[in-house]
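Purpose: get a first structural picture of the assembly so the mutagenesis plan has something to point at.
Setup: two entries, given in the order below. No constraints added.
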Amino acid sequence: SQKIEQNSEALNIQEGKTATLTCNYTNYSPAYLQWYRQDPGRGPVFLLLIRENEKEKRKERLKVTFDTTLKQSLFHITASQPADSATYLCALDLYSSASKIIFGSGTRLSIRP
Amino acid sequence: NAGVTQTPKFQVLKTGQSMTLQCAQDMNHEYMSWYRQDPGMGLRLIHYSVGAGITDQGEVPNGYNVSRSTTEDFPLRLLSAAPSQTSVYFCASSTRTGGTETQYFGPGTRLLVL
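Result (structure tokens, whole complex):
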């Protein structure tokens, strides 16, 4: 069956450390993988997109890797801050096979001062 | 430029009632979609549209209908509400799937079916 799994429903780390979130998928062939941030009571906000032929993408303190062999993406926040506390969602863009964007269940990240 | 707007923000329905959740975008986006979000389930795709007059089913389409008569609007209809449809509903749009296109989400509609 097709699955998107974000292991760690919740992740708590100390301010200043690097937070690493994982997104694994099975039986999908995404053309792109996206990461979103969602704060309580709000809609998701797009953060980064990485293509299937890209290994790594960076934006300020954010870094995303994409390994299509392992079927895994890692999302890193360096020098984490309490303001980074939120739920982070990965999404598979099945552009090459279907016009669908499918989401994982999310990881709730808490950064303690 | 209002982005993606959704109405209503909150709604309480009785089982069997019908209603339409409204979604509109003013960015001339081709791609629009509806998701529902339940605790611990993430976002699940209900229906999506790649342009006016074209719609398709997502992961959980049963109990919902959509139509896309204009580029701007993508309403979601519940014909006979059930308690299992209690959820938060998000509408989203982008120029199209794939590439560098950002998907923009609306603020959501919270629906309670009694």
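The interface with chain B takes residues 4, 6, 9, 31-32, 34, 41-46, 49, 89, 91, 93-96, 99-106 of chain A (CB under 8 Å).
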